[in-house]
Design a protein that fits this description.
With 1161 residues, this protein is mostly beta strands. Helix content is 4%, strand content 40%. The radius of gyration is 37 Å and the shape is globular.
């Protein structure tokens, strides 16, 4: 919300319903009654909405809101009473009706899902409000049995702002008079738009000549801090942020000054900038928006004045534009209080099939011709222009190759004529190209000659002929004569001229001139995929039009985004791979931000030691300094502070030897040492004694040379003695410094030694968990791996399949499983349906030996590695959202598909405990219920997927005629029928939400305590109204109909009957009738967008207890690792041992705690 005037709640007013018909425009209309003015939500005038003359992806509907407005949501609807509706569309915004900008959710997803019928309304709330005047909707897909049909509404609120235009000569100067007192936080913020890629937005300086400058350079924003008038490099501090800021769209900039740092924000990206101490005091006395007004000659600094528009210009809370409007004496200048901007119509060549055809010169006798254009691209190669020379039997190609411009003319029987000019033309900047042929002289120039000019004198006349092709050629088989031996162009073009006449691209868009395919006209859709860079750990980013590449060389990391460390996390891990003692690079946090460090690994003992040296591990004699009664030593370690803390934290045991040799001494206790994380804390105990004891090891063991003292060196004896021992308390390590007192005592001699830090026992490797029961699991907080994350662990098992890890969101999920005895599967969904990565081993993995799994998911790809086998990868969806959104509680589950003849019953024998019975049935009521069973309290949960209604999902009963039944009725609604007392009538809870038999996965939780029942199911809250009466006679009929679908994660209190049926189908207490097939309820190729969602149902008589769903996509915040064994996808291995469970997101450790309090990293 740039205006700061409206909250999200209040900014939700309908904006379209009251507009006049003249506010609507469209590409075409089927008839007068199908015009764009009829496209208002829930209206039935005309033909009930807009429909274009033809249904294709070049149609559009546009709405003029009358002024700049804040948009927060968009709703769509089909054409009333028809079979015409959109199923997907693009949303475009513009301030001027030109230069459209596509709105992308999460900066990646371009397409918005549309409608499934003509009358229902589908609304999308924008993640961030958009300020615009014009809204354009472009259909992508529509009902295949109809045509494009649309009614729409946009929601938002008015937007008011203060705007000025700067034309490169106008100016604005703000003088801070008097200078305000020093503030704890100072700030500058503004919004700008421009077509120029260079220019100084703002310059602020004070009496000390310290200055701050915000400058555009090649479309990037530079922040320059300058100390005085000096031009030395030490007097400058420069940072850069943003890209493509010359796109004539509004961009937000903010600078916040704190005592030691700056926060620089450009749009959605913020950079934390550490500043030198000389810049900590901000004493600006004037802020100017024209450098000459600040007394800075432009030519001396090679800077340009800004040319564009500024909005909401605020300095320390003062609106400078508002002051200028009020003619406040602190603000002077000559600016226009509006935004005057030229109209440049661009076009985007989106792919290999894109091309533009234009008619060429009609006067064949012409002896001169010229073609001009501007382009911007990330690709090094691509065809810009081609045309034939019919009279000469030649063809002309103007193209990019290796980021240089090339002209080639090929004539039969002659050697090709070739020219080249320019370099690095794939930098994303606008570059101009001009081809001129005049009187036998041919000239090609780049950037008006600044990028070089090439000349030639061909022996034949070069004219443009009857047709020109830009960007590429039509598909093979077309009647047009066009050949492209080069790659097609992907990028933007604008300002096309033919024989010095501008080409009207709006006429081209309206099919009034030329022809085109796969073009986006009146917009430039270039995206900078390297700003901000997704390359981690210092990897360098390069890009093409459609993707980016990270160069990870010399970083110590690998993968598509340089996320995964190529080094092990500990010496223990190197030993596990079979290495011997020696120096190894240790990356203590794996993919985190701590750099790898060269550390010595001692593997000569049973324990594997990490040895970190410091600057003095030798025995050092204390030599008193004149006038000082203390000796101080400070220790610098070879590892950085973060590395030290991580090594100590993840090690099972750390120690450091501390030795003090003495003669004629009052010993170590008049002394102290400093140890622990950060700056450390003063410690007054010695090696071998506990913290805070003020003792040495001999005092603890009661064997000091003088029983009156707690340290040997306190005895003041003439013989040499020593107090030595190991410091083993990790919270006090490492030793930072040592202070020895009483060193000037006559005859006193002493020496000390502080050994290296030694640690063993990597808790990340041997934090093993043993899963020996069907219900075993580990419960962790949600795995937050939005942009990049990796998971690694060791396992060994004797079972042939099972899930290792699973975490779900509303639609997203991530899962790692042993799909067979020789295959590991990594699957995930980031919004475009499930994707899988598989690695197949050459030998069985259930051999009870340790195997390592490493999985990574980032914005570019997913990868899976098993042991030392080659890494398998799966490219990420091109238009899926890049943030993995996981927020639900997950558990290890069993799933099975049922047919109409399938039934599962589970009999509970009750020798002592008052356990409860639960039976999952689909074709018959379960029999065999033990006597003396009463239903007093239940927690029932399951997930189901079916297209059948009515259907009985679950029935639990007792010999006392008490029961609980869960079913779908004939209206596709959920019902819970229960009798809590055999002497009372049946209670019925009936939902008000329909369409539960829609083939999607739904999760249900039923909880009852005493007489309360709470049901959680489906998408959002609704209530039940209880009915009283006899037991529904249709219940037994429903059971006889059978159930066709999938049941998953069935749980009744502590009993898992479906697990028991799949794992132990033969012995009692499980009875299986008919085919029971293992299945994956959570994945359906017919509907990859199936969401697991929940509802809270209430309103029945009596008190209602709130049920806690096991899968809750809204409130829950957890995930699980572990499980039990079976030959099914939704279970993990029995007798499975997992170790080195590592969950990392954003390059950081996830520190998790199991449900029994044991910590796992």
């Amino acid at each position: 919300d740039r205006s700061g005037q409206w909250s999200v709640v209040s900014c939700f007013l309908p904006l379209v319903s009251n507009l006049l018909p003249l506010s609507f425009r469209s590409s075409s209309q089927l008839s007068g009654s199908h015009g764009p003015g009829f496209a208002k939500l829930n209206r039935r005038e005309g033909a009930g909405g807009w429909s274009p003359l033809s249904s294709d992806r070049y149609q559009w509907l546009e709405v003029d809101l009358g002024g700049r407005t804040q948009i927060t949501a968009v709703s769509t609807q089909g054409r009333y009473g028809s079979s015409d509706w959109l199923t997907a569309y693009l949303l475009m915004f513009s301030d001027t009706g030109h230069n459209w900008k596509q709105h992308r959710q999460e900066d990646s997803i371009g397409a918005f899902p549309g409608n499934s019928n003509a009358d229902s309304v589908v609304q999308h709330k924008l993640q961030h409000p958009v300020i615009t005047r014009y809204v354009r909707l472009i259909p992508l897909d529509w009902n295949p049995n109809g045509r494009i049909g649309l009614r729409l509404e946009t929601y938002g609120c008015p937007y008011n702002s203060d705007v000025v235009s700067l034309d490169g000569q106008s100016s604005l100067l703000y003088r801070l008079s008097p200078r305000p007192k020093q503030m704890t936080k100072e700030s500058i913020s503004l919004i700008f738009k421009t077509l120029k890629n260079s220019g100084t937005l703002l310059h602020a300086e004070g009496q000390s000549a310290h200055s701050l400058t915000l400058e555009l350079e090649k479309g990037k924003l530079l922040l320059l801090l300058r100390q005085g008038r000096s031009s030395s490099p030490d007097s400058h501090h420069l940072v850069s942020l943003g890209s493509l800021l010359d796109d004539q769209h509004w961009h937000h900039v903010a600078v916040e000054h704190h005592s030691t740092h700056l926060n620089l924000t450009v749009d959605k990206s913020t950079l934390w900038v550490q500043i030198p101490p000389t810049f900590t005091h901000w004493d600006h006395s004037q802020v100017c928006f024209c450098l000459s007004r600040c007394g800075i000659p432009l030519q001396s600094h090679l800077l340009k004045n800004f040319h564009g528009c500024l909005e909401n210009l605020v300095y320390n809370g003062v609106n400078l534009v508002d002051l200028a409007k009020q003619k406040d004496q602190r603000v002077t200048g000559n600016v226009t209080f509006s935004c005057a901007e030229p109209v440049f119509v661009a076009m985007t060549f989106t792919g290999p099939q894109s091309f533009l055809w234009l008619p060429g010169v009609t006067e064949l006798s012409s002896t001169a011709t010229s073609v001009g254009l501007q382009f911007r691209t990330w690709n090094k190669a691509g065809l810009l222009l081609t045309f034939n020379l019919p009279k000469q039997g030649a063809v002309v190609w103007l193209y990019l190759s290796r980021a240089r411009l090339h002209l080639q003319i090929l004539k039969s029987g002659r050697a090709p004529l070739e020219l080249s000019a320019g370099s690095a033309l794939n930098d994303g900047q606008w570059h101009s190209v001009e081809l001129i042929s005049r009187q036998g002289h041919l000239t090609v120039s780049v950037d008006e000659g600044e990028g070089a000019t090439a000349h030639a004198s061909p022996p034949f006349l070069v004219t443009t002929g009857s047709q020109l092709f830009f960007g590429g050629c039509p598909a093979e088989g077309s009647s047009q004569d066009c050949m492209n031996p080069f790659k097609a162009f992907q990028g933007c073009m604008r300002l096309l001229t033919v024989d010095n006449q501008p080409v009207d691209l709006i006429m081209v868009q309206q099919r009034l001139m030329g022809n085109y395919s796969n073009l986006q006209i009146d917009m430039c859709g270039i995206i900078d995929r390297c700003s901000p860079s997704h390359c981690e750990h210092g990897g360098s980013c390069s890009q093409s039009w459609s993707t980016f590449h990270c160069n990870c060389s010399s970083t110590g990391y690998s993968g598509a985004t340089c996320h995964s460390s190529i080094f092990e996390q500990s010496c223990e891990a190197y030993k596990h791979k079979g290495n011997m003692s020696g120096y190894y690079y240790i990356d203590v946090d794996g993919s985190g931000h701590i750099r790898p460090q060269l550390i010595y690994c001692d593997m000569t003992e049973d324990k594997t030691w990490m040895v970190i040296q410091h600057n003095n591990t030798d025995l050092t004699t204390v030599r008193p300094s004149p006038g000082k009664n203390q000796h101080m030593a400070h220790f610098e370690y070879t590892a950085e502070e973060k590395q030290l803390a991580a090594v100590i934290g993840q090690s099972e045991h750390c120690e450091q030897e501390l030795t003090y040799h003495c003669r004629k001494s009052h010993g170590p206790l008049p002394s102290w040492w400093v140890g622990g994380p950060g700056a450390g804390q003063v410690q007054t105990y010695w090696g071998g004694a506990p913290p805070g004891s003020q003792q040495c090891s001999c005092g603890l063991q009661e064997n000091c040379v003088d029983p009156k003292h707690y340290c040997n060196c306190d005895a003041d004896r003439t013989e040499w003695a020593n107090d030595s021992g190991l410091l083993t308390h990790k919270e006090t390590l490492p030793v930072r410094s040592l202070v020895l007192g009483d060193v000037q005592r006559p005859g006193s001699e002493s020496a000390y030694r502080v050994g290296p830090l030694r640690c063993h026992g990597d808790e990340n490797v041997w934090n093993a968990a043993f899963f020996d029961k069907e219900t075993s699991y580990l419960h962790f907080p949600t795995f937050h791996g939005e942009l990049s994350a990796d998971i690694s662990f060791l396992f060994k098992t004797t079972s042939s399949s099972g899930i290792f890890l699973e975490n779900l969101g509303i639609k997203d999920f991530i899962r790692i499983e042993l799909s067979s005895s020789t295959e590991v599967l990594f699957s995930f969904d980031v919004g475009n349906g499930p994707l899988e990565v598989r690695v197949k081993a050459g030998s069985p993995l259930n051999d009870n030996r340790w195997h390592r799994i490493r999985a990574e998911r980032n914005v570019k790809e997913a990868s899976l590695r098993l042991d030392e086998l080659p890494t398998a990868t799966q490219e990420a969806p091109a238009d899926g959202h890049i943030h993995l959104q996981l927020n639900s509680q997950l558990f290890i589950e069993v799933s099975a598909s049922f047919k109409s003849g399938t039934a599962v019953s589970y009999t509970i024998k009750e020798p002592v405990s008052n356990e409860l019975n639960r039976s999952s049935s689909s074709s018959a009521l379960p029999s065999s219920i033990s006597s003396d069973m009463t239903l007093r309290a239940e927690n029932v949960s399951l997930s189901f997927r079916t297209s059948q209604s009515p259907a009985l999902l679950l029935y639990v009963g007792s010999y006392h005629r008490e029961y609980l039944a869960l079913l779908l009725n004939k209206h596709d609604m959920l019902e819970v029928r229960y009798r809590l007392d055999s002497s009372k009538d049946v209670e019925i809870l009936r939902s008000k939400v329909r369409n539960l038999a829609n083939g999607q996965l739904h999760a249900v939780t039923i909880s009852r305590l005493a007489d309360a029942v709470s049901v959680v199911s489906e998408v959002k809250s609704f209530s039940f109204s209880p009915d009283s009466g006899e037991l529904d006679p249709e219940l037994s009929q429903l059971a006889s109909l059978g159930f066709t679908g999938c049941l998953s994660a069935v749980l009744f209190n502590s009993i898992s009957p479906l697990k028991a049926a799949l794992l132990h189908p033969v012995p009692s207490p499980v009875i299986v009738t008919g085919p029971l097939v293992q299945s994956i309820c959570g994945s359906n190729s017919a509907n990859p967008y199936a969401a697991e969602t929940t509802h809270h149902l209430s309103g029945q008589s009596g008190s209602v207890g709130r049920g806690q769903p096991l899968v809750n996509a809204i409130r829950s915040d957890s995930a699980l690792i572990g499980g039990t064994a079976a030959a099914t996808f939704f279970t993990v291995t029995l007798d499975l041992l997992l170790a080195e469970i590592a969950l990392r997101a954003w390059g950081k450790w996830a520190d998790c705690t199991t449900n029994d309090g044991a910590k796992a990293i």
